[in-house]
């Protein structure tokens, strides 16, 4: 996936040199994942769903703020109180009455809060 990300984005990203995310699940045991393969993370109570580029989805027993502290802030954007997205997978933005939507390269749409819309729009336009 490293070559794929470099080819898609045409430049070296900070994600290429970031330490991997280490997770433990009962089914597979301890695993490491590259940060650049993380599409987005969503909070659900004190758990987080991590959604990966290969389509894998994992529910982990840590709050979203745990991952916010572990991920590079220049590459991940907080869309909402419960959602963090990898800016390298953002395809386009759409303004709505409730705030907005961020469309990913996978076709998924994630909501953006009204309060954060301006800052997110600016961050992604400057990218």
UniProtKB/TrEMBL annotation:
Gene3D superfamilies, alphabetically? LytTr DNA-binding domain
Query: Per its UniProt record, what InterPro entries does this chain match?
Result: LytR-like (IPR046947), LytTR_DNA-bd_dom (IPR007492)
Source organism superkingdom: Bacteria
- Annotated ranges, domain HTH LytTR-type: 21-126
Q: Which Pfam families match?
A: LytTR
Q: Which terms in the Gene Ontology molecular function aspect does this entry carry? A: DNA binding; phosphorelay response regulator activity
| PROSITE patterns reported in the protein's UniProt record | HTH_LYTTR (PS50930)
The molecule here is called LytTR family transcriptional regulator
